[in-house]
Amino acid sequence: MIQILLLKNQLVLIARIEEVSTELGEPDCKLIEPYELKQENGENLLTSWPSFTSQKELMIKTYQQITTKKKILLKEFIKKLKEKTTRIK
Predict the structure, then answer these.
(1) Residue 78: phi, psi to the nearest 5?
(2) How many other CB atoms are found less than 10 A from the CB of residue 65?
(3) What is the pLDDT tens value at each position of the chain, 89 positions in all?
(4) Is 0.85 topped by the overall pTM?
(5) Partner residues linked to 39 by β-bridges
(6) CA–CA gap between residue 47 and residue 69 (Å, rounded)
(7) Spatial contact of 69 and 39, defined as CB atoms under 8 Å apart
(8) d(CA 1, CA 66)
(9) Nearest-angstrom CA–CA distance, 3 and 36
(10) How is domain 2-88 classified at the architecture level of CATH?
């Protein structure tokens, strides 16, 4: 499922999300192809996140996120994934 996450540090991410069964206290939310959502000059911008790695799947703990919003900005996210795929080929 694609969701928008607002993390406790006020970072807004959009990513495919998979919940994973783990031991108590371990990361239980897999982010697939995460992008940071920013606004500049009234435009929504998506940038790869985190910027210091090319890793495409990351794990976080669900308590690190404040809220999730479903199916918002889906077109922009899909467009970004297609651009990335086109550049790799």
Answers:
(1) -65, -40
(2) 19
(3) 788 888 878 888 888 888 888 787 778 789 999 999 887 887 778 888 998 988 889 998 875 555 555 554 566 666 776 676 444 43
(4) no
(5) 44
(6) 18
(7) no
(8) 17
(9) 12
(10) Roll (2.30)
H, E, C per residue of the chain: CEEEEEECCCCEEEEEEEECCCCCCCCCEEEEEEEEEEEECCEEEEEECCCCCCCCEEEECHHHEEEEEECCCHHHHHHHHHHHHHHHC
For 70, the token pair is: 């479903």
State the residue for tokens 């899909």: 78
Show the tokens assigned to 44. Answer: 């929504």
- Residue that has been written with the tokens 């495919």 in this structure: 16
Q: What six digits make up the tokens of 60? A: 């976080």
